[in-house]
TrEMBL record:
Pfam families: Peripla_BP_6 (PF13458). It comes from the Bacteria. Residues 44-401 form the Leucine-binding protein domain. This is Amino acid ABC transporter substrate-binding protein. It comes from Streptomyces populi. Keywords: Signal. Residues 1-22 form the signal peptide. InterPro entries: Leu-bd (IPR028081), Peripla_BP_I (IPR028082). The lineage of its organism: Bacteria, Bacillati, Actinomycetota, Actinomycetes, Kitasatosporales.
Length: 426
């Protein structure tokens, strides 16, 4: 699902995204003239980044978008900033709690008076109503909850068609497509799918959504639920093997995925694809799945952004060049980078001295799709009175291969299907 594959997928995971063009005169026309430089006293443009850097999920689970955004702004400032003004990034760790999130929102929005929030990745986005009331554009955040389908001025990395009038989706229901399941049915011929989740509310809710989508595409579905505190992955792996599952989906975090994979190898469960999501699309696969070589090489990931391994693409190569010092790379980092680029393009549409919340928000609301230079499947923000019954949606697909990393499977702008939109409650 567009929200399922990339956005809603992250929601269930909580345990467990163009510079102005113009003509150039010959350089000779400027010989002998001093190059104007911005005054050193020019006030910076202040943005905020909220992430659940410390949370019950673990220290690094939600930091990828933050790191990608900071890398973009560092490179931007090294090149002169926006109209000669550097971008000052204020970060805040909300600790993964609603109380902490409200505190971060108050600090950044009211005290620091940031122009915008960028690449928000919050386990509990309790401060979203406050951000919306203040008219602060929140650009490129990860839709871990329903906030980006609920409030105006919030623009998640995957877009939204919902009215965003203060109620999630349409009368409390969100909608997602079945393109992920259609893809594996057509391309891999899969027919039986297991869905593994924790007995935790968000994980279980996302698992139910996956089951709905699979059943809509005609799969035989094998649900598997494990205890969050003391998960018995071996029993789940043995059962999905006995049930003949050839496809495995999950609503688990990276650690849970690794344990499930190990259990699958231990019991000899062979599947066509162990499908994970954008949060687990990282370069740490060899370490995370070191005890599960067979399952590791059956890993597939789906999302709505270009594979961070596609360094032949100029936009990806720029991202990789700027983040070369980072110890790991991930799809969430690339999506944080795309979010920062989105804000930058919005800010460049404003007068240099007038980069305001209202001007940035007007750019976000202009009704045009956005791709961050081709890094994203075109992102659309509309406000439809009624949810669409069907929609043509596309997805990015990659599979892990030892020695090669994440290998792209087809082009994300042509991996497209006309699929039904299924209602679910967040």
């Amino acid at each position: 699902m567009r929200r399922t594959a990339a956005g809603a997928a992250v929601a269930g995971l909580l345990l467990l995204i163009g510079t102005a063009c113009g003509s150039r005169l010959p350089e000779s026309d400027f010989e002998g003239r001093a190059t104007p430089t911005p005054p050193q006293s020019a006030a910076p443009i202040r943005v905020g980044v909220i992430s659940s850097a410390t949370s019950p999920v673990g220290g690094s689970a939600f930091t990828g978008p933050r790191d990608g955004a900071k890398a973009f702004f560092d490179r931007l400032d090294a090149g002169g900033g926006i109209g000669g003004r550097r971008v000052e990034v204020r970060t805040c760790d909300d600790g993964g709690s609603g109380v902490g999130n409200n505190e971060c929102v108050h600090r950044l929005v009211d005290e620091d008076e940031v122009v915008a929030l960028v690449a928000t990745t919050a386990l509990d986005y309790a401060g979203a109503p406050q951000v919306s009331r203040a008219g602060v554009p929140d650009i490129g955040g990860q839709p871990i909850g329903a906030a980006y389908d609920t409030y105006p001025h919030l623009y998640g990395i995957y877009g939204s068609l919902a009215p965003r009038d203060g109620t999630p989706g349409w009368n409390g229901e969100l909608y997602g497509g079945t393109e992920v399941y259609r893809y594996f049915k057509r391309v891999q011929g899969a027919r039986t799918a297991a869905v593994v989740s924790y007995n935790q509310s968000a994980s279980a809710a996302y698992a139910r959504l996956v089951v709905q989508g699979l059943e809509a595409e005609g799969y035989r579905v094998v649900p598997e639920q494990v205890d969050f505190a003391l998960p018995d992955f071996r029993a789940a792996a043995a059962d999905l093997k006995a049930q003949g599952a050839d496809l495995v989906f999950d609503a688990l975090d990276t650690h849970g995925n690794a344990q499930l994979c190990k259990a699958m190898d231990d019991v000899g469960a062979r599947v066509t694809a162990k499908v994970t999501n954008v949060q687990n699309w990282t370069s740490t696969v060899p370490e995370d799945y070191k005890d599960a070589p067979r399952c590791r090489n059956a890993l597939w990931a789906t999302g709505a952004s270009r594979n961070y391994e596609d360094v032949g693409d100029p936009a990806v190569r720029e991202f990789r060049d700027a983040t070369g010092q980072l110890p790991v790379h991930s799809q969430w980092q690339l999506e944080g980078w795309a979010a920062a680029r989105w804000f930058t393009d919005a800010a460049k549409s404003c007068p240099p001295s007038g980069v305001t919340r209202a001007c940035v928000d007007a750019f976000m609301n202009r009704g045009e799709s956005y791709t961050a230079g081709g890094l994203l499947i075109p992102v659309t923000y509309e406000r439809l009175a009624e949810p669409p019954k069907t929609r043509r949606t596309c997805l990015s697909v990659a599979r892990w291969r030892d020695g090669r990393g994440w290998v792209t499977q087809g082009d994300m702008n042509t991996n497209c299907f006309d699929v039904p939109q299924i209602a679910y409650r967040p």
